[in-house]
Amino acid sequence: MRLTGRALRLTVLVGEGDMWHHRPLATEIVHRAHAAGLAGASVFRGLEGFGASSIVHTTRLLSMSQDLPVAVVIVDDEPRVRAFLPQLDELVSEGLVIIDEVEVIRYTGRTAAR
């Protein structure tokens, strides 16, 4: 797949403890993005954060470190990203889903090992 120029970055912010049918929600989002043929997805674990609940979760307090913020970031062209949004409607009941325009400068993968 070749991806350069204008694209969309889809970011899904959820809690580390959020689940989808006994599976971490971030994992489910990544696997669905893969199945949908999106260019790629990465999951980043936050050190501290709060959302609509106004509860601060941090790695500094053992009692609050159970539901740290997680960001799933997906970049692809606009039609593919927009086609994926209905799946997020099904999956994300609490969290934040944002889209911003980006410019892809370079997108390359590894060559397959023989």
Automatic annotation (TrEMBL):
It comes from the Bacteria. Transmembrane segments: none annotated. Gene3D superfamilies: 3.30.70.120. Belongs to the UPF0166 family. PANTHER family: UPF0166 PROTEIN TM_0021. This is Uncharacterized protein. It comes from Candidatus Protofrankia californiensis. The lineage of its organism: Bacteria, Bacillati, Actinomycetota, Actinomycetes, Frankiales.
